[in-house]
Amino acid sequence: MGTALLIPSISSASATDEKGKSNKAGEKPLILSTWNHGLPANQAAMEKLSSGGSILDAVETGVRDTELDLENLSVGLQGLPDREGITTLDASIMTGDGNCGSVAFVRQIKHPISLARRVMENTPHVMLAGEGARQFAIAEGFPLEEEVLSPKAAVEYAKWKETSQYKPVINIENHDTIGMIGIDANGNMAGSCTTSGLAYKMHGRVGDSPIIGAGLFVDNEVGAATATGLGETIIKICGSFLIVELMRQGRTPQEACEEAVRRLISKNKNINDIQAGFLAINKEGVTGAFAVHPGFNFAKATLKENVLIDSNSHFKP
Ligand code: ASP
Description:
Blueprint: E1 30-34, H1 38-50, H2 55-67, E2 89-95, E3 100-106, H3 112-122, E4 127-129, H4 130-139, H5 151-161, E5 178-183, E6 189-195, E7 216-219, E8 223-229, H6 231-236, H7 239-248, H8 253-266, E9 276-282, E10 287-291, E11 297-301, E12 306-310
Parallel strand pairs: 3-4
Antiparallel strand pairs: 1-5, 1-11, 2-3, 2-6, 5-6, 7-8, 8-9, 9-10, 11-12
The structure holds aspartic acid.
């Protein structure tokens, strides 16, 4: 039986109120999601959890909300396309017992996160990519969407085509993956991550989001982490796995996120052009968040509230 939903609606979510602070006491259940779109996603996830869904159901349901958001240019089929004008999607899902599934470079699928879950639950594999992922989706009964850019993405792509300059510069306009991690009242954890990836990427490029250990990692014995930002840099340091392993060695979620950012910075020369942000929760429900540059924010939902928080960052405003 589900319990009544206690968190307030997103319209009453308070504004940023605890700049970058981790909650030292720990709370369960708890859901963290990257960026502004984390607020409605957290709301949907907490509703699912409070109505009797599992933490896995909750993190899938939460990011499905973002995958449908027509205003969002970096998650779902309305996301900005690659250089060829084709939108390709990456997603992953993981539970704290070590199960995981992901899809990469997939086309025409409205809910790649649900396809990633089917990979986890209905195949002997962890990851399906490209045409194989699309064929699996058809076999699983997923409808194929028409391959047309959303009106907003079409306008942006036309503007970009005027110069067709490819610069791997990450800013708030061309990235915004949703990564969500959560813990239920009993300490079970799960996470999800879904994106259309870097805008105007090379056709075939896959980012960190579908790579288990890079964009997402969950272990009930320790905690969970997720990432957003320039995927190449996150893959190179196995960002989410690194954070969970640092927590396993005794770091707090906040310390682990900060160490991952330091590691990422130490491996990249052109750090001025690179943004990345990490979120973490440990098994007590203590949270952490940190980014390379200012501007990263995240949503935190408990049974009492769902709030947007500005993350602290290595470089200061
Ligand atoms: N991490 C995503 C990618 O590289 C994009 C982002 O979160 O900014 O595909």
